[in-house]
Amino acid sequence: MQTKRIFLSTILLSATFLVASAHSYAGGNDTSQHGGYEVGDVYRGDKVHRSAVTLPRFTAEELENIGFPADDEYVVEAPAPGITYFQIVGICSSYSGGCNPATYTWESIDAYQTSTVFNHGGSIVGTAVLEYGYGNGGANLGGVSGSNYDIEYLCGSMSNLHSCSTGETVTGFLKFYSFSGPQGGSLSANTSSIAYPFGFWSDSLYIL
After folding, report:
1. Cα(88)–Cα(129) distance, rounded to whole angstroms?
2. Contact 154, 42 (CB under 8 A)
3. What CATH code is assigned to 2-207?
4. Domain segments of the chain: what residues?
5. What is the pLDDT of residues 65-117, one digit of tens each?
């Protein structure tokens, strides 16, 4: 079984999520929960709006380490390449502002995390999963299968992954799943490549 854990040493943690104003969700100048950090500081576990999400980026050396050509301008040209990277990258819930695409906020999840930093729950819990390549999969929280309510198409190489523009080749997906019922617990997500390199990928996270 392949998981994102294989690639831990290659992940740029600081590039997973960028926050324009780290404490805008928490209500401005409240620093009591975050060790005295000031407004504008970026720290792991920040809740961010979807529009602030910046996808993981890799240097040429890191790409070579995970099997990509050293040229960081490399773009997948095959019409349907298999999965080569898979990761749970965000959690939203009623407690964090809801999962409405127009208003919801995220707790960012980096590659080393095994649980959320913030408590989640309420009527809706949601997750964002990054798939680089093409696969079929899903997400499960506490035995309940998630509803895939949104997909964002991604283009470019892993060093320059971005939302697609007209005419670009799709190289990955940001898939959004929601759960109605579970308030937290063990979240798992998985996918199976539909083309070479074939394989099964999975990731897991405990939601507080």
Report:
1. 4
2. no
3. 2.60.40.2870
4. 2-207
5. 544 444 433 344 445 689 999 999 999 999 888 876 566 678 989 988 999 99
